[in-house]
Amino acid sequence: MLTIIGATLRGIFRDRVFKGIMVLALLFLFIPATASLSMRQVTELSITLSLSLISFILFLLAVFLGATSLWKDMERRYTFSVLSLPVSRCTYLLGRFFGIALFLVMTTSFLGVVASLVIKVSSDMYPPDRPIIWSILFVSLLFTTLKYILVVGVAVLLSTVSTSFFLPIFGTICMFFASGITQQVYEYVTSQATINDTALVKPAVSLVYYLLPNLSSFDLKVNAIYGILPSIEGLGLTLAYFISYTAIIMGFATLIFNYREMK
Amino acid sequence: MKINISFTMIFIGLLIYGLLIGPFTQYMRNKPIEEKLGYVPSIRILKPMSADQKELVGVSLILKVMMYYGGQIGQVQKQATITESPDLQGMSRLLHGAVQLDPYNMDAYYFAQGFLTWDARQYKIANDLLEYGMKYRTWDWQLPYFAGFNNAFFLKDYKMAAEHYKKAGELSGYDLLIKLAGRYFAESGQTEMAISYLSGMVKTAKNNSIKQAYETRLKAFIEVRKIELARDTFIRSGAGGVLTIDTLMNSGYLNSAPIDPYGGKFYLESDGKVSTTSKFAFSAIK
Fold this sequence. Notes:
- The complex is a heterodimer of chains A (about 260) and B (about 290).
- Chain A has about 260 residues and is mainly alpha-helical.
- Chain A is about 75% helix and about 0% strand.
- Chain A has one domain (about 1-260).
- Chain A has helices spanning about 1-15, 15-25, 30-35, 40-75, 80-85, 90-125, 135-160, 165-190, 200-210, 220-225, 230-260.
- Chain A is globular, with a radius of gyration of 20 Å.
- The mean pLDDT of chain A is about 85.
- Chain B is an all-alpha fold and about 290 residues long.
- Helix content of chain B is about 70%, strand content about 0%.
- Chain B has 13 helices and two strands.
- Chain B has helices spanning about 1-30, 35, 45-50, 55-80, 90-100, 105-120, 125-135, 140-155, 160-170, 175-185, 190-205, 210-235, 245-250; strands spanning about 265-270, 275.
- Chain B has a two-stranded antiparallel sheet with strand order 1-2.
- In chain B, strand 1 (about 265-270) and strand 2 (about 275) form a beta hairpin.
- The longest helix of chain B is centred in the last third of the chain and has 30 residues, at about 210-235.
- The radius of gyration of chain B is 24 Å and the shape is flat.
- The interface of A and B includes residues 39 and 41 of A.
């Protein structure tokens, strides 16, 4: 599996899509100047912009790398060469997934260092009223990475059932947006205000709520920006949620891939 | 041949662009206010659409309002008067949306309380927004400080003012704010309080347009205070006659004619209160 992880990493670094997306990182240079437009919270704005940019870059990488990796291998008939070696389909698929996940961890680490420098510059120029709590910032980056690893998992799962890249890419994007509102919809439908609504809506919404990943719990940006301590219990639950949900989707992905007909 | 076609296309394109860019920029600059602030979807739609970028979308709404307001102030300073009032309702709508996306954003509260009180005279809305912010920014002394000022100066609710100043004093540890809480029970000294408040705002403002707006208002209040002092001295002296600005100047209590930086003219109301034809706003003079 380590060989496949290594090959995945090498492949990503050579990929033009990766290089194109990483050009976005140049936007970090403009953050101190943009943040200075704020009237009362220059440092907070620089943290907002930095975390948003990292999140956006990771989103693009997760969707495009997760959704096209398997499809490209099949198009180039690379899958057949690998599977002719003594490597199981399960190992191959998990190797691809862990390779992309590791790459996201490396990207976040690199961008995290750049963001820290940018935030330091802004805070030196305009000292904030509340001190920056760096540990919360790094925890926020960690959970953002976990969120996008989960997104990669969904993209890989969709890749195993699709012969083109359309379903994995658009399916993952739709899932990403839907997963951000499931909590709100679920809370609304199960609230007292809608107690008399049709009997079918509640079970349907609950099913979708439990089926789709709940990505909003991974978002700790507000905590990082304003130095608000997150709930330790909440972090533990989110981490356990990540492990269980990723295990389930990757379990299904390997199962489907094992039975997939290769032509 | 193919290269010639490319060069011809670039040349024609550049030519049209060069001719077009002037009128195009002018057209964009003169767009109606409603179009400049733009249509922003309901917050119920905007929230889910923002996905995990709610804070960024909130910031973009605030920057949109700031740029728009900055442009309006810029025009005012060039022409001394403007023919159109800023779309304060639109600005308020966007800032209320911004705090629903990021209830911690201080820029939104700071900016909204400024124009909602001094320009739009929507004191209750301003204080409701500040109260909303206090639920989230529990460490911030500035929100109760602003609310305290609004209660005392605009709403004349001295009990609430004292409570807000007490809270601001406790959060900041500044004795001055706690003392202010006591002082606000007294109805006198309103203009002095406004001068002290606005001086603080000028000192801490980072944005140039906002700073200039506060400086203008501060200048106006300094002039009002001068007139008030002259009026009080005139009354104490027991001199007779109709109480007007001219009377104060002719009797030597006012050294020079007071200048309203908004372009209006100061006058004394029948009860002796100092007013101005500009109503302390550029848009009031047409």
